[in-house]
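ok so I'm stuck.
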Amino acid sequence: MSTDAERLNALWDAYAHRVQAYAMRHVDPDTAAEVVSETFLIAWRRLADVPGEPMPWLLVVARNTIRNAYRSRYRARALADELARIADVLPPVAEAAEDVALERDALLRGLAALTPREREALLLTSWDGLAAADAARVAGCSVSAFQVRLHRARRRLRAALHPDDDADGRSRRADPRAHAVIAWEGD
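replied:
not stuck anymore, here's the structure
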């Protein structure tokens, strides 16, 4: 057995019960066991930093481990509260998933109906986030030619997604829905 392993075993034998007692005063028994384990794992990793009188050092490590556990639990509770709040204002998942799937399918069908150049124009600006000048450079055309492609692509995609709209994009439906899939109105 190496001297490091012997030293850690000696630390464990002499101080584990005291670190356990300290942890039990601050947290539940399961968490206290985790605190002891984490404390001695840190002691093993930083064995050279453990002073000749290790008890205060071990208790500082245990205290820090307990604080980390509190912070983790606080963040978990805050996240759970936030998710519950969001769940209260969102439609049920099944409805939302169905709506998303329908819009996704419509968008994919609309993109498939475009010419390859029109599809590239839309994807360069919307998916890749390029400005028209940068997208034109990638597409290998002038900025004005690219803007024409982009305008035509948007118009054809809008027509595919909203067949009830007129040529100017105004809805002829009694109750038009706002779709997030055409968020590409501006450059």
